[in-house]
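User: Hi! Is it possible to get a structure for several chains at once, not just one? Here's what I have:
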Amino acid sequence: MEKASETPPFSRDARARLQGSLLAWYDRTYRELPWRTPPRGGENGDTPGADPYRVWLSEIMLQQTTVATVIPYYRAFLSRWPDVAALARAPLDDVLHAWQGLGYYARARNLHRCARQIVSQWGGRFPSREADLRALSGVGPYTAAAIMAIAFGQKATPVDGNVVRVTARLFCVSTALPHARAEIEALAGTLTADRRPGDFAQAMMDLGATVCTAKKALCVHCPWKGDCRAHARGTPLDYPRKTAKKKKPTRHGVAYWLRRPDGDVFFQRREEKGLLGGMMGIPMSPLEEQKIGPNAAARFAPVAGDITFLSGVVIHVFTHFRLELMVCVLVPRVGDDIPGMWVRESHFSDIALPTLMKKIISHVRVNGLQ
DNA sequence: CACGCGTGGCC
DNA sequence: TGGCCAAGCGT
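Assistant: Yes, the chains can be modeled jointly so their relative placement is included. Here is the combined structure:
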């Protein structure tokens, strides 16, 4: 396994050159973002550490999520909960509601749990040791390293998708992902600067986000073009190598729009674990590989009643499968005795609904019978 | 450790 | 248009 890369790590001098040119590039091209503190620039100037709460909040939101998507959510959270104590005091439902549409809802539950951990275990102040950060809910190796570097100014190497790509190209790592992960992390660690660790970490990510991107390598603008081995070969887009992905399957299901005579609609909280965990939604059948016929759809209904199938289907694409959902209106024949809540349409905006549920609501508006 | 977990934008 | 991608984590 020790064929680490096609080319060996850089010498001490080369590393110093790489660090200097990247930091200079960062100062020159600095992008302002709501959670950032500007680089002081200059000689040995370390950027003053940012508020750990803001760094943490932004990093959790940015997990697998684009900057443009995160910005409005980040502003809303920070304005509503300015510090970790405020967030810890909030009811979980409020946090989930504020998170709706952002996806990966386990992050929101872990965020809330983490806020309470900070208050109960650390007196409301973020710990400044990587191991203590790692013990917090929702904080993994990447986020712990990011907080260490950006908020506490400590030498640490957060390795996100950008850093993986930049590093794989710089060294021409021949091993394919995800197997190459450890190897790439080790190589990335050899680059990390002692000075301005927070700026260096963000510079690596910015480089991957704006210059050394997945689909384009704008090597002309890259501060590392003189040392990059993939650029020297003229094949930067060949890295990082990846193993082929499986094709995304389609799964089928039925969603039940339970409507009472007064017009209220039935919602229930989804189980904490699993798809859209902890969010509100209308009842759904189990998801199957095959289309679900009318008989099975009636059999899966949560209560007895008159069923009307709406025309069309709701299509929603998740990370690991494509969902094709039939929607039927169900007028319960008997009183409700299943756990959940009846919600007036004018109050839909009060409950935490994932995007799939909003699509279903829209589908009923368009195709539903009044 | 491979997999489950959202959503929106891009070509 | 379908596949790929985006500042990963928990199990």
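The radius of gyration of chain A is 25 Å. Chain A has two domains: 12-238, 250-367.

User: Great, thank you!
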